[in-house]
Design goal:
The chain has about 525 residues and is mainly alpha-helical. About 65% of the residues lie in helices and about 5% in strands. The longest helix is centred in the C-terminal third of the chain and has 49 residues.
């Protein structure tokens, strides 16, 4: 059975190597460019924290742009020990990726049949685990810890929560609480099921272990003038506000009822679980379901909570897809055996289960196919837009104050002080959006323009580089558009065009001169918008 592990590790290596080599081949220069700008946010925070103790993309302040305590601390530790190096995220992700493949293997080998093992190992590919390694974000670590959590939940069920097994589960849950704030959903679901099963002590300890790092970080953040949750969680997440009932209804409507991604990703495994539970517990007490099917209950509850209060698009849902694949395959054994006299009429539920499992597999294949063309150009896109912006700012505005809305590479490479108009890297902007969350869109736009104009003037920011479409109700009329840079075949950046703005005529003249002197990547189309 170890051969299957070796073969999948080899296949996993081939996938990673292919994308790394391809990424090198499509960019200019002998460097590796991550296919996602957010990696550089982690690197910037990690460097600032390691070198000066500031948890921010800006030196000298506290602005929690990272929603992964563990990943940023790991990067910061590597910077502290080995020095600043943009390959640190890749190293962590490769190790985490191999670790996840191993624990998937261990999960099926220790608890299920050989047939389930062979089928289950495919989830490392269908869940885009290999892709997360190359992307370089904390999602690979998140997926590894989720697989380990499933393993130790199952092991604790089998051992009736022996002290040794439960301590291992607690350690995994502690790390899970640190790796991404969405882990709150998993921890809450697990603690709730344990409570229903009258495992009071275990439930409380799981809750403490999962929320302890979040609480500690939140208290530190508040002490430094920030919010309890990171800025990214407050800006991107869904949470009640204003009229509670109306707010909850809108969260349900947006997160589940009208969310096509919810049905695309979760409908088929949910059908599998429904058939399995009906077949096995048709005439048994509901308490038996909570006692014997913890993995199903916890993973389904986590998927629902993530859909309601988090995001299930781009890469944020991959840990759920991985767990759903693993749990669905773990209960598929009885349905994989075709009985004699098999017919559609007599075996309708078996056919439905296998069909739903197959369709879920097709969803995984679709995800692989969907991201393939994205990965073909992503590193090139980031180099031609984000890295070019950072080169220009480093050469002409190093140490100065800049307004932006995509803050990764420009914070890591250019050493400028940033005002992030989306609020991820600037707590003052996050505070504005949180305090004005109940305003309608028109009122919010008017008030934001006034806030930003005053903030830029009072803090003496020099220029701005933004996606104009991202600015609420268009950029202010008194901003002077100096030049635009446009890239082709864009799949990785939020928009294909960025615009450079100045806030007064003197700075506009200076900005235009700097742009005219800058040796721009030949693949980027430049248009001068400011005429003297």
């Amino acid at each position: 059975m170890r051969k299957i592990l070796f073969y999948y590790l080899l296949l996993f290596t081939v996938f990673i190597a292919f994308y790394l080599i391809y990424s090198f081949s499509i960019i200019q220069g002998d460097v590796f460019i991550y296919p996602l700008d957010d990696v550089y946010i982690h690197l910037s925070i990690a460097r600032n924290f390691a070198e000066s103790g500031f948890w921010s993309v800006n030196p000298g302040s506290f602005d929690s742009a990272s929603s992964s305590i563990l990943y940023t601390l790991l990067l910061s530790s590597m910077v502290y020990v080995f020095g600043d190096n943009f390959y640190h995220p890749l190293i962590i992700n490769i190790l985490a990726g191999y670790g996840a493949v191993f624990w998937i293997y261990k999960f099926f080998k220790d608890f299920y049949s050989e047939r389930a093992l062979y089928l289950g190992m495919s989830v490392s590919l269908l869940s885009l685990l290999y892709l997360m390694v190359v992307v370089g974000m904390e999602q690979t670590l998140h997926m590894l810890l989720c697989v380990m959590a499933l393993y130790y939940i199952k092991k604790n069920i089998n051992s009736n929560y022996s002290q040794n097994d439960f301590l291992k589960l607690l350690m995994v849950i502690l790390l899970l609480g640190m790796v991404r704030f969405e882990s709150m959903f998993f921890v809450t679901a697990l603690s709730g099921v344990l409570l229903i099963n009258k495992k009071i002590k275990e439930s409380v300890l799981i809750l403490i272990a999962g929320f302890l790092p979040i609480v500690i970080f939140g208290l530190i953040s508040m002490d430094r003038g920030g919010y309890f949750f990171p800025n990214s969680v407050l800006v991107k997440g869904n949470y009640p506000g204003g009229n509670l009932l109306l707010s909850l209804w809108m969260i349900f409507k947006k997160g589940i009822l009208t969310n096509l991604s919810f049905y695309k990703l979760f409908f088929f495994p949910f059908v599998c679980f429904g058939i399995y539970l009906f077949d096995r517990y048709d005439r048994r007490e509901i308490a038996d379901v909570f006692k014997n099917e913890m993995l199903i209950i916890v993973v389904v509850a986590t998927a629902v909570l993530q859909s309601l209060f988090g995001l299930i698009r781009h890469r944020y849902e991959n840990y759920l897809v991985l767990m759903l694949f693993m749990v669905a395959i773990s209960v598929a054994g009885p349905y994989l055996k075709l009985p004699k006299g098999f017919s559609f009429k007599n075996n309708f539920r078996q056919i439905t289960f296998l069909g739903s499992l197959a369709l879920f597999g097709i969803v995984g294949v679709y995800l692989v196919a969907y991201f393939q063309p994205v990965m073909q150009v992503s590193s090139k896109n980031i180099q031609e837009q984000q890295v070019e912006m950072s080169r220009f700012l480093h050469d002409n505005y190093k140490g100065q104050k800049i307004v932006a809305n995509d803050i990764g590479a420009i914070s890591y490479f250019s050493n400028v002080e940033l005002l992030d108009i989306l609020g991820l890297g600037s707590t003052d902007v996050t505070r504005f959006f949180v305090e004005n969350k109940t305003l309608d869109q028109d009122q919010l736009n008017i008030k934001f323009h006034t806030f930003l104009a005053n903030y830029i003037r009072d803090h003496q920011y020099k220029i701005a580089v933004i996606y104009p479409e991202w600015f609420p109700n268009e950029p202010p009329k008194d901003w002077i558009a100096v030049a635009s840079w446009t890239i082709d075949h864009n799949r990785a950046t939020a928009r294909n065009k960025i615009v450079w703005y100045a806030f007064d005529k003197n700075e506009a003249d200076n900005l235009r001169l700097n742009i005219s002197r800058f040796k721009l990547n030949k693949n980027v189309k430049e248009e001068v918008l400011y005429k003297k």
